[in-house]
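Sample intake sheet
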Amino acid sequence: MAAMIRRLVALLGSAVAMQLLPLPGHAQSQMDLNQQAGTARQDADRQLNAVYTKLRTRLGPESRARLQAAEEAWIRFRDRECAFIGAPTDGGSIHGMIVAQCQARLTLVRVKDLEAQLNCQEGDLSCVRE
């Protein structure tokens, strides 16, 4: 019984190791990873621009101005937050990927926040309606 358990543990360990080690055909350079992160950030930015534009068209002049000011402040926050997150890798080849991943992640959160404004339930007082 003990030998069977050891064999099972060894087999599971090999399976776990295979999941953690990249296969030779799937190896990527840091430049490839940086480009993928940059593409993800661009995709998130496109989503943000689309939902921002849609929301903006539903608002009156005063609310549009407040939304624009909020968006400008949010972009400054995102960029500064991601500079903070990426600081430990500053100067390294992975730095661009870390910053782009952070920006993509925060941008997708912002997309959800703006979508919530677009899809407010009637009676929700936290929604801007004009």
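Comment: The mean pLDDT is 85. Residues 28-118 form a domain with the Substrate Binding Domain Of Dnak; Chain:A; Domain 2 fold (CATH 1.20.1270.180).
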